[in-house]
Design goal:
The chain is of the alpha/beta class and 336 residues long. Helix content is 43%, strand content 17%. The strands form two sheets. It has a six-stranded parallel beta sheet, sandwiched between helices. The protein has a six-stranded mixed beta sheet with strand order 7-6-8-9-10-12, sandwiched between helices. The radius of gyration is 24 Å and the shape is elongated. Keywords: DNA-binding, Transcription, Transcription regulation.
Length: 336
């Protein structure tokens, strides 16, 4: 099949080639009716703009990148799906980069932006240093996701981990739980995310006079259900007793549920369990999982809005958006 040309779209829409070009390149001086007419013809004919020509005409590629550590993690998979749909609706292609928590891979993502391959990057860093972020975020617009420090002039979008951790811990305390384990205390050093969640967890315990016991910080060597299952299982087999488990993420919670079930511990009767991220799987676990629900739509929309403004030329101070969250209360830790 012959490639659909700009001229074909113009003839189909009954407009000039210049008008089609203006729509493709998102120039503002096109009436809404004409824009809709041209977009309908583009859809009907399956026209795909030539990326090289578009870049030469506008200085832009029409492509954005999303970089996360591991797209196999359910939270990142759902985040990528949400941002991808939003980017497509705004006329962008989205490249997905997986860094594997490697500093070198994280640097490569930012260097790829400097080479002009993409117009901007939405990036959730894991280990890259602030100095490197400052060095590599000058040429290409970058919006950071998460709780780490950001260079001056770089926008960030996050949820308030400390506040959310306090809220879910307070929920457990209202259920009468007093020995609350923290599952997912990283064995190789806390990330900024875990540090903030642990701070909120410990603050809520101290404010109510509940015990903050270092033995109840159950370390895992990976972000996985398997690692959490081992940590909880080893703790129980070693005689540690607790009546609630605050899990750093939903995978940790699913692993904890498995370890408890294998040992005949009833959830929530003996041990209440909470997770974090509210991924789809949590609605189908047995029991269904009480978990922190970050507003992914709000987070994705905020990141896209900030990035589009940067791509469009905004050079102001860094802006910091806190996306809302809530607690999805389900069977593993039901309301009293």
């Amino acid at each position: 099949m012959a490639r659909v040309r700009l001229q074909d779209v113009a003839e189909h829409a009954g407009v000039s080639m210049k008008t089609v070009s203006n729509v493709v390149n998102d120039y503002p001086h096109v009436s809404p009716a004409t824009r809709s007419q041209v977009l309908a013809s583009i859809e009907a004919l399956g026209y795909r703009p030539n990326a090289t020509a578009r870049r030469l005409a506008t200085g832009r590629t029409g492509t954005l990148a999303l970089a996360v550590s591991d797209v196999s993690l359910p939270y990142f998979a759902e985040l990528a799906s949400t941002i991808s749909r939003l980017a497509t609706s705004r006329g962008y292609r989205l490249l997905l980069e997986q860094t594997g928590e490697s500093v070198e891979a994280e640097r490569a993502v930012l260097l790829g932006g400097e080479s002009g391959l993409v117009d901007g990057i939405i990036f959730q860093p894991s280990h890259i240093a602030l100095d490197d972020l400052a060095r590599y975020t000058t040429a290409t617009p970058v919006v950071l996701l998460g709780e780490g420090d950001a260079p001056e002039g770089v926008d960030t979008v996050m949820i308030d981990n400390t506040a959310a951790a306090r809220e879910v811990t307070e929920h457990l305390l209202r259920l009468g739980r007093r020995r609350v384990a923290f599952v997912g205390h990283e064995a190789h050093g806390l990330s900024a995310t875990s540090r903030q969640r642990l701070t909120g967890f410990e603050t809520a315990l101290r404010e109510t006079g509940a015990q903050v016991d270092p033995a109840l910080l159950l370390a895992t060597d990976a972000i996985s259900a398997e690692a959490a299952e081992r940590a909880v299982g080893d703790a129980l087999d070693g005689g540690l007793r607790f009546d609630a488990a605050f899990c750093r993420d939903d995978l940790a919670a699913l692993g904890a549920l498995s370890a408890l079930r294998r040992r005949g511990v009833r959830v929530p009767d003996d041990v209440a369990v909470t997770g974090w991220d509210d991924v789809t799987l949590t609605r189908f676990s047995n029991p269904t999982l009480t978990t922190v629900h970050p507003d992914l739509d709000h987070l994705a929309r905020s990141a896209m809005d900030l990035l589009e403004e940067r791509v469009g030329g905004y050079r102001g101070a860094g802006r910091h958006v806190v996306a809302p969250h809530s607690i999805s209360v389900r069977e593993s830790a039901p309301s009293a």
